Amino acid sequence: MNLKGLLSLFVVYIVWGSTYLAIRIGVKEGSGVPPFTFAMIRLLVASGILFLMAFLMKKRIRPTKKELIILLFSGVLLWNGGNGIVMWAEQKVDSGYAALMMGTMTIWVSLIERLLDRKRITLTLVMSLISGFIGIALLNLKALIKLDVESIVYLIFLLLAAISWGSGTLIQGRKKSNLNPLVSSAYQQLAGGIGFVVMKLIFNEPTPYFSFETALALIYLIIFGSVIAFTAFVVALKTLPSGIVMTYAYVNPVIALLLGWIVLDEKITFLTISGTILILLGVTGIFKERYGKKAGNV
Q1: Helices 95-102 and 270-296: crossing angle, nearest 10°?
Q2: How many CA atoms lie within 13 A of 290 on its CB side?
Q3: How far, in Å, CA of 161 to CA of 164, rounded?
Q4: Vertex 16 angle, CA 70 and 269, to 5°
Q5: CA distance 244 to 50
Q6: Distances in Å between the alpha carbon of 254 and those of 81, 104, 117, 230, 249?
Q7: Residue 290: which pLDDT band, with cuts at 50, 70 and 90?
Q8: Radius of gyration over alpha carbons of the chain, in Å?
């Protein structure tokens, strides 16, 4: 195991679990900051800091054409398709709930890989999918029974966000870049930031108003969520087996649930606990099937 990679993964475990809380504080109804404007500022500032750091450290900043295409494409999937939907959804939904829906990312990545590699569907995968889908159903049971259209729409979009983030992760894991992680992270966040400029204009978001609370959340996301943790994620993907890196899907939702409960008094019910266990069991099954032998040989 690469020590630098393991330390980077630990940062991803802790910091990314807390970013759901920061996002909720920053964009919840009445915060004064529209979600895409919030994300735009976060990523453009963070990418600028990363480019400056890479320049001062004399790292190669100019990518090849192939590297640039991969970084921009994966950046849009990760940030606009993945994180952008989370930003939008957390105006209304709890941070822990959003984290759990994003935790299904490993399930979708496994299915996408099966299609790309034309591998057969195993019994373990089927059972894992069933466990994950039952967990999702339990978490959304009230909304499904009442046919709460608004809640079901948020559910669908958060699952799409998980698929988008998983696809971006898959591309980044399969198409390794020789750029320094600071530079890779900077380009991906620049791509996301430009995407959010477009989304802000399309949705005609109003001028933001920052309270002390929302400003603090934004600063935390820029420094810890983007500059430190996302770069750590890139380092982890470059230095560790992807199966080990993907274990953050276990840890982030649990940290997000606990922080949402402690800080924002988000409810943790029997259905929440049951759904969480089943989703994590599904993720565990897929992890063992997909990476068990490889992880055992590391």
Answers
A1: 30
A2: 27
A3: 5
A4: 130
A5: 26
A6: 23, 13, 31, 19, 9
A7: low
A8: 19
Task: Name 260's Cβ contacts closer than 8 Å, sequence gap at least 6.
Answer: 20, 21, 24, 94, 95, 96, 266
In 3-state terms, what secondary structure has residue 180?
coil
Domain boundaries, the chain: 3-296
The span from the CA of 291 to the CA of 13, in Å, is 19
Coil vs helix vs strand at 210: coil
pLDDT digits (tens, 9 = 90+) for 57-100: 999 999 999 999 999 999 999 999 999 999 999 999 999 999 99
> What's the CA gap between 162 and 146, in Å, rounded?
25
Cα 109 to Cα 242: distance, rounded to the nearest angstrom: 12
What Å distances lie between residue 197 and 36, 200, 233, 237, 298, CA to CA? 8, 5, 24, 28, 42
Q: What are phi and psi of 179, to 5 degrees?
A: -70, 155
Tokens 């057969």 found at: 120
pTM across the whole model: 0.87
Report CA 3 to chain centroid distance, whole Å.
Answer: 23
Name the nearest CA neighbour of 164 among 89, 225, 92, 236.
89
Closest CA to 271 of 149, 94, 117, 112: 94
Please name the residue that has the structure tokens 């276990």.
Answer: 250
179: Cα separation from own chain's centroid: 22
Tell me how far apart the alpha carbons of residues 67 and 251 are, in angstroms, rounded to a whole number: 30
- Which residue's structure tokens are 């409810």? 267
Q: What H or E segment, with its residue span, contains residue 209?
A: none
